[in-house]
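Bench log, entry 3. Co-assembly request; chain sequences pasted below exactly as received.
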Amino acid sequence: MITPPVVDLTLILPEMIVLGVALLVLMADLWLAPERRGYLVAASLAGVLAAAWVAAGAADGVSFAGMYVRDALTRVGQVVALAATGLGVLVAPEYLRRYNLDRGEYYVLVLTAGAGAMLMAASRDLLMLFLALETLSIPLYVLAAWARGNARSQEAGMKYFLLGAFASAFFLYGIALLYGETGTTRLPDLTSALAQQPAGISAAAGVGLLTIGLGFKAALVPFHAWAPDVYEGAPLPAVAFMSVIAKIGAFVALLRVFPLALGALADQWTLVLGVLAALTMIVGNLAALAQSSYKRMLAYSSIAHAGYLLVGVATATPPAASAVMTYLAIYAAMGTGAFAVAVALERSGGEADRIEDYAGLAGRAPLLAAAGALFLISLAGLPPTGGFVAKLGIFAAAVETGSVGGLALALIGVLTSVISVYYYMRVAYVMYAGEPDQSGGVRLHASPLLNLALLITAAAVVYAGVLPGAVTSFTQQVGALLSRL
Amino acid sequence: MWFRTPGGDLLLDYIPVLVHFVIVVGLTAALPALHALVGGSRPTPPKMEPYESGVWTIGSTRERVPIRYYLIAMLFILFDIETVFLFPWAVVYRRLGAFGLIEMLVFVGVLGAGLIYAWKRGALEWE
Amino acid sequence: MSFVPLILVWPLLGWLVNGLAGRRLSRTVSGLVACAAVGASFATAALALAAYVQASAAQAASAAEGASQTALSVIVPLFTWLGAGDLWVQASLQVDALSLTMALVVSGVGFLIHVYSIGYMAHDPNVSRYFAYLNLFIFAMLLLVMAGNLLVLFVGWELVGVCSYLLIGFWFARPAAAAAGRKAFVVNRIGDAAFLLGLFLLFTALGTLDISEIRHRVGELPDGLRLAAALLLFAGATGKSAQLPLHVWLPDAMEGPTPVSALIHAATMVTAGVFLVARLDTLFLSSPAALVVIATIGALTAFYAATVALRQHDLKRVLAYSTISQLGYMFVAMGAIAPAIGIFHLVTHAFFKALLFLSAGSVMHAMHDVIDVRRLGGLARTVRWTAAGFIIGGLALAGIPPFAGFFSKDLILEHAFALGMASGNYIPYALGLLTAFVTAVYITRAVALTFFGVPAEAGAHPHESPPVMLWPMALLAVLSVAGGALGAHAAGEPLLRFLAPLLGAVEVEGAAAPHPPAAILMGISVAVAFAGVLTGWIVHRNRRDPSLGAMGTLLEQRWYVDALYDRSIVAPGHATGRWMAGPVDLGVIDAAVNGVGRLFAALGAASRRLQTGYARQYALSVLIGAVLIVGYWILR
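Structure output for the full assembly:
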């Protein structure tokens, strides 16, 4: 007997808005004159804002045969993902025009990837999670290869795609194994099935493979190797967006799978996640030390931040879960911001990617340099910026558990953060103290939208640092969700 | 018991698949092995030709295929899959009722938008 | 006392105005805004002092006779900064004797240096940026000293670090300035890491970071933990206050504009470490082992830096090592269970060291940035006011009565002696006395080479600095002479009395306070100081500067400490970074991948041929990670 599944379409209204606008933009671009692409940007932003407004206020519920859930984690995750998507749209237009890459599909891909991240936050089923993961990933592969005339961008897209497909295969195989063991792919059923019986070999292997699939997206060591190459090759606005959105999707999913679904089996996975977190923090930060490319440095930095975030997932207490979401929200601002600064610069027809290109920026563009320094200080986790609040929340949660592992992770986190200050501040220092480029090779490009993006992210970083209560009170519901289990 | 589902069913239904798998692997391994063991090998230049006793090959066999071909192939697969989804829907169409119709119209509509996009961007033109 | 936050608001406003609109302001307006901001801050702090004294008296009156006299500590809450889980951080200011003293010194000396800067930076093109940084620095330092919570304190702590970094590198066109800024930052990071760990330790153990709560509850901690926290925080203090072994950044920090050196690297920021120890006095004073460490490090640093100062040729470097040495004295006071005395020396030192630096700046101004003492000479005849200022500061530094430095240094030595009597550890006293002698020698050398004898370079036409620079120096000179009254017995020790309820409250068990023979010790101090000045004068008169042979080389090379760091830490550190990015990430991980790759080669030759470039290696690293993780999960 087949009955139509019970669906509650109002539940997925935010996703429908985003995808609907994406479709609209795709169609409109076919007939729109190139000089009117501003409308596409405006439409994308309006869609993102509307979706965020709906997502922030939407009521909880489960639908689509239990595959879709809207709860606190969905709400927070979607709002953060939408914020990142909006910023991803804002940083692009001027850059795309500058390098003659301006095509309406760019915004379609950004919106689709954003919708993928939103669906990841709402997945209550492993298959749904897989589909969402692919919806997030595939646009990112294309975005990485967006600069069609540029061999490095092509290489980045290809590498990202091949390795992403590889990781997706692991993820899918993990789902298959878990299904074989438990006969279900619904996360709550999985919990009860695994809690009833001693976990068998295939369940263990399945969980392991899920970890790898998500670990790849989050760029955890040793699944990180793609990140520096892809970040270096892909066009800057695409990197600014993908580095953030992929992290949001992956970590919301990690929260959904590990502390929320498999919380009862915490003793079995905390060690693995803890070791991964430690490795990621150490390798990411140390490798970043020796980079001379701004993008590569930020790539390793983003790997390192994945390590800090994973500390929160591995800690798996309610405050830790809230802290992970706080971190993601703040990272969305400071990560995008740090790349957006680079978007504003150009060196002899290409991206200004060498750290020397930033020399003396403070003299030429004081506000841009100040924003850049602010993002770097925040990424380094120094007060009074959002980055400090983010790290503090994670480490405090880890220390609070009182376990040796939590203490060790917090310790590694603090020490590696101290190391990270060196490579971040080296750039900030070059901006302020470097010999300014006299040859005129480095040019500045200002655009109202990019300035708006810089203003929003800088304000968010400062605001979150000075009055973090506004952020934490919003993300706190995730911890409350976990503690109700 | 790894071969039981939580419901307790043995995974017996899959035994034919397993048998098939074993036969395939066994055969593909056995035939070349048998050939290597039993048969002799006396290679001569004509025997090494790609098409023995056939036409002489001219130029490289590794021809480039126009990229357009892949584009068309991909579009074919996309719309092919659309059709695959339409069949089961058509079978239970009556029981799904108006909801099913709307749902499918949306689905087809989205794909239609894709088709318009591909058309307008010139993906369907060979030159 | 709801107006207290204004102390912080003024410099913040100044920073905003100069930072945002600075380019549109004329240089005069820019300077005036900055000075007004700090001046207003000082005035507000003075009002706060008056209000505090009044409230204190009211409390003493209301407390019945015989009631124990506890120090009044007013908490001014600002807002809830962080609230997550168990971690509630109330951003608050703490108004008590210590924070008010520090706030007055910071804003007062800061104000004078701001005024001086108007003249000193008169020809710099980026003057608004300079004043913006300077205001931000004052804000950060005030936040640090007035914080009611360790986390808020840490915010100030980091912010002053950033400001100092920006100001050292202000003249970024000079590579030495850039390198110095970086060095300061890196060395401070090491200290900050320890500081943060100490903070985490306290938070884990006590569940709070509130300063007054921690001060009252340290007794609950087990001895080992208390010692660990104290040592970690002290390690943080050594970074900021440039004590052995983290002192190397301070002398290089002299690359910044001279008023910055005066403000940050002499009078205020570097004293943050000393302040931290005083702020958490109960924690340190209840860990005897930590006290021994503090006193010993302080004494060793004082002696080490003073000897190095003997053979420095850059006038500002002489003063830099002198600062390190004097900070060592302050730590000796802390280690000798006399935090109030340490703060007293902090205050007098702020006066006379600021004066010395401003005078040195005035010398540079007069001599067109020549600062090598071997190229100066005879300036007392040409730039009289500057010379007078430097000599007054020098006398105070040397500990000649009745200058301010004499009183504070003498009290420190007295307490160091008392420490010796109580514990048998006379090392701090002995080193302190020796340092007093060396100090008098090196500052006399600096004075003799710079201001007396025949000018080394003919043709230079030194000119006296403008009044806007001389007036702040004059005021500081007055303070350097009269500042001793703050703690002089004859003047009623106003500062020490003021601090006593707060910092004198800790009674150390079993230490029946020994009474050192104060008069004899004072006599010895005075004799040593005069002997030092005399020795310095005899050796260096007529601008003679004997090189001291091998000993001199050792001192000129700073006992080879910097070289040792370069060889043992800096070079391997750089190598490690390269190694992690190169051999480890590409080499070891990829090599391991390749090694395993050969294992898989037989199986995967076909599939490998499909992939090109390095993607295959990345895929293999994913695969190996997968094998390890899945393997662990299956085998566990």
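Chain A has 20 helices and five strands. Residues 151-182 of chain A form the longest helix (32 residues).
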